[in-house]
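Deliverable D5.2: sample structural annotation.
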Amino acid sequence: MSTTKKPKSEPIADLNPRSMTYEFLGPPGAFLISFGVPFMTYLLYFGCSEDSGGCPPPLQSIPDRFVEALSEKTFWASLWDTEASLIYLGWYAFCVAAWAVLPGDWIEGVTMRTGEKKKYKINAFSTFLLAMGISCGYILRNGPESFTFLYKKWIGFVTASLVMSLVQAFYVYASSFRPGALLALGGNSGNFIYDWYIGRELNPSIGSFDIKSFNELRPGLILWVLVNISMVCEQAVRRGGFANVTDSMWLVLAFQTWYVVDGLYNEPAIFTTMDIITDGFGFMLAVGDLCWVPFVYSLQARYLVFKPVELGLLRTAGVLGLKLLGYYIFRDANGEKNDFRNGRNPKNLKYFTTSTGSKLLTSGWWGRSRHPNYFGDLLMALAWSLPTGFDTPVTYFYVVYFAVLLIHRQRRDDENCEKKYGKDWETYKKLVPYRIIPYVY
């Protein structure tokens, strides 16, 4: 069973009203982002790699090389790698098989507009452990050089993940027109480009297999760690073994693996996030989960392969301290929110009750800002980039991108809450005036 049904529900037509507002500047913005995200993913490779001559390559050479590359058939052919595509397809199939075979509890999500609660299988962390066990065993048996293929076939894997994203986006868009499909409130505009991008159906599924939550946590997120491990192996081969891998590379691997493990271990927490309860699943989430996360978020590790950095004890301690501070804020803030949503208040936090009976926290981390977990996220993002040093701004792309993403999410959250709570939201903003960073923003 994939849903728990309630005895009463509205006709499905009444539950799928036409979307009257746009995000991302509407269809033109959706069109540009749909091209812009893949373009930026490729650009971050060609603009920061040893093959291109640096990070970034000499600026005066970029225009000529760009025009030359686009005009050559060999360049376009080089974007496709059949072996990398087959490996990627095998990886995705492994994740699906692990979801089906590995044991896991089934938990209920939030109540949907139909009055039903969708059920989700919880075994992402088990999938991660299985993947790590197989990968580490393979490396121990065959040596680090056997696991450098993700570095060597980087562009081929990017293209394979992009193709998978496109296939899924078209599939879920087409399947959203079947009778009885519950649509996302923001994805039913009637404009093909926008709805295809933003996600028309709320929870596209094949039987009990929920496509959106599966992609959020498994194929891209776990692959991110495998990519970083491949970067460690490549550096180990170049420097004469794992003992000579730089402290900066180990820090990046540890920090980002920690982040992934935390998300997978706390898998049930994702089912109260906006991605799951509000957003549809379209190209935006597909390309973000499958392509952007593993191949953009691993930029720091890839850079350290060809530009190794030795931090030393003091700088390592400083970066580690920043990471721990960010993680503490992120986890403690989310813990306060999850406890409160589930009817628990172990810290005896203060709250504001709206006219509709909803309760909004006004003390603890949620009294310092309206999105304190985002503040912790930003500190961790900075800690991921600091090990690369300051020779290039490119490796700090993630920090800037993530800040823009979180500010957009914060503003979208505020708009939704203003619609939901009305004047009470204005009162709440006076009680908690800062958006993300206490006393700053």
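Annotation notes: DSSP finds 20 helices and seven strands in the chain. The beta strands are 3-4, 105-111, 117-122, 205-206, 209-210, 351-353, 359-361.
The annotation will be released with the project's public dataset once the embargo ends.
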